[in-house]
Specification:
- This protein has a domain of 131 residues.
- It contains 13 helices and no strands.
- The longest helix has 23 residues.
C-alpha cells in the first residue's frame, strides 16, 4: 500500500465506492471503534476516524498511517505472530500507546490492515478500466486480473491474516463486507453502471465472485512459487470468459448494467 494512496477504511465498512452506503450488513468495528468502549478523553478521536472504502486514509493522521504501514510490513516479512506492540512501535518509530488511540487495540489494527490490503491496486485498476472500449474490455479485464494476482506482497499479508480472520467473528463479518466492495469494483471493470446495486443480479454477482476466486486462487500459487508464469492460466481463462459471457464483456446490458 502506498502511503499517499486511498485505501479501504477502518471505520464505515458498509460504504460503497463513491461514498454512498449500500445495505450490505452491519458495519464492522475499525479505527476508533474496534476496541469497543473507549475512554471519554479519546472520544473525539473515535468520531474523527471515520472512513469510506474509497477514501480511508485522508482522515487518518500521519502517526496512524505510519502504524498501519508498519503493521503491513511486519506481517508480510515476519508473519502475524511477529506483529506485537513492541515490534510495531519500533518499526513505526511511534509510541505503542498510539495503537490504542487510533485503532482501539490490536484487533482494530488487524481490521484496518485487512481493509488496506490490495486496495490501491483495485483503485488503480478501476481507473485504468474507465474509458476502455467495449470491444477491448475482455482483454483488458484479464490483464488487470493478472496485475492484481501479481501483487504478491499484499496477498502475502492477506493470506497470513486469513486463518485468524476465520476464527474471529467480527473479522469474518468485516471481510465479507469488504468482498462485496471487491465484487462491485470488478463489475465496474466490466463497465457496469451502479455496480453495487448490480450485485442484486444473480448472474452479475456470480461473475464478480468467479473473478475474485480466480485472482485469489492464482495469487496463492504465485505466492508459493514466485517464478510461476501466470500467463498460461489467464490465457485459458480469457477464452472461457469470452465464450461464456460475451454479452457482459462486450458492452451489452448484461442483465443489470450498462456499458461505461
Amino acid at each position: 500500500m502506498k502511503a499517499d494512496k486511498e485505501g479501504p477504511g477502518a471505520g464505515e465498512a458498509t460504504a460503497r465506492p463513491g461514498g454512498a452506503a449500500p445495505d450490505v450488513g452491519e458495519a464492522s468495528p475499525g479505527a476508533g471503534q474496534a476496541g469497543g468502549s473507549r475512554s471519554r478523553g479519546r472520544g473525539k478521536a473515535a468520531s474523527r476516524l471515520r472512513f469510506t472504502f474509497d477514501d480511508p486514509l485522508s482522515s487518518l493522521p500521519e502517526t496512524g498511517r505510519k502504524l498501519l504501514i508498519a503493521a503491513k510490513e511486519i506481517v508480510a516479512e515476519e508473519g502475524f505472530e511477529a506483529l506485537t506492540l513492541n515490534a510495531l512501535s519500533e518499526r513505526a518509530g511511534e509510541n505503542k500507546a498510539m495503537v490504542s488511540y487510533y485503532f482501539g487495540n490490536k484487533a482494530g489494527l488487524v481490521a484496518a490492515v485487512l481493509d488496506s490490503v490490495i486496495h490501491d491496486e483495485y483503485l488503480d485498476s478501476r481507473d485504468r478500466m474507465k474509458d476502455v472500449a467495449p470491444g477491448e474490455r475482455s482483454e483488458r479485464l484479464v490483464a488487470e486480473m493478472r496485475r492484481m494476482a501479481a501483487a504478491v506482497a499484499d496477498f502475502r499479508v492477506f493470506f497470513e491474516l486469513l486463518p485468524h480472520v476465520l476464527r474471529d467473528q467480527m473479522l469474518r463479518r468485516r471481510i465479507a463486507v469488504l468482498y462485496q466492495w471487491y465484487w462491485s469494483v470488478k463489475l465496474q471493470w466490466l463497465g457496469v453502471e451502479d455496480a453495487p446495486g448490480a450485485l442484486a443480479d444473480p448472474d452479475l454477482l456470480g461473475l464478480a465472485q468467479v473473478l475474485s476466486a480466480v485472482i485469489d486462487g492464482l495469487a496463492i500459487q504465485a505466492a508459493i512459487d514466485p517464478d510461476l508464469d501466470l500467463a498460461n492460466p489467464y490465457r485459458i481463462f480469457s477464452r472461457m470468459l469470452e465464450a461464456a459471457l460475451p454479452g457482459s464483456l462486450e458492452g451489452d446490458d448484461g442483465g443489470g448494467g450498462q456499458s461505461a
